[in-house]
Amino acid sequence: MTFMKKHPFLIVDYDSSVKLLASEERQLKKWLSFASLVVEELLKKKIIPSKSIKSIQVSLLICGEQRMRKLNHEFREKNKVTDVLSFPSHEDLRKMNSTDTNLFLGDLAICHQKVKSQAKQFGISYMDEFIHLFFHGLIHLFGYDHELSKKEEEIMQGWEKTALDKFSQIKKGAR
């Protein structure tokens, strides 16, 4: 298990059950530290109604297809591999005005092989697809679900676009 705290706001406790290349691991740590700045921006834009949050914690599992299929079957009754699963620790943060200063959002699982195949399919890097799935899962942890309705899907896509645009700005500035 790797504990990462590159930025004091977003704490990502992650574990990988697949072997990552050393370069992938380095870039993953760097990009997750950038993600902290994005999450702060999302909170400023009111992704959830809270003014008191000082830090957010997320557990992240990077796993293989077999493990992802098992998780998807066990928790969603879908016997197939998916790219990202979210397990929120709160029913819906949008409906509660959290007074927690340190908020545990929940758990994410991202399938390593799906990231690789989708990155190739979309003509982007592994890390670009990984961070997209990370934000997608994170937005689910905040209480959004594109499977509920078209309106909810549009709201979630808006937050994803906001997150990815901000991430892109941060990434460009760090070069």
What does this structure look like?
- The protein is α/β, with parallel strands linked by helices and 175 residues long.
- The protein has one domain: Metalloproteases ("zincins"), catalytic domain (Collagenase (Catalytic Domain)).
- 49% of the residues lie in helices and 19% in strands.
- Strands 1-2-3-5-4 form a 5-stranded mixed beta sheet.
- Strand 2, helix 1 and strand 3 form a beta-alpha-beta unit.
- The longest helix has 24 residues.
- The N terminus is likely disordered.
Q: Report the β-strand fraction as a percent range.
A: 15-25%
Binned, the helix content reads: 40-55%
- The helix count comes to 5
Number of strands: 5
Order of helices and strands: EEHEHEEHHH
Unreliable stretches covering 5 or more consecutive residues: 1-7
CATH topology: Collagenase (Catalytic Domain)
Regarding quaternary structure, how should these chains be classified?
Answer: single chain
* Cα end-to-end separation: 29 Å
The CATH architecture can be given as: 3-Layer(aba) Sandwich
Q: Rg from C-alpha positions?
A: 15 Å
**Overall form:** globular
Q: What is the assigned CATH homologous superfamily? A: Metalloproteases ("zincins"), catalytic domain
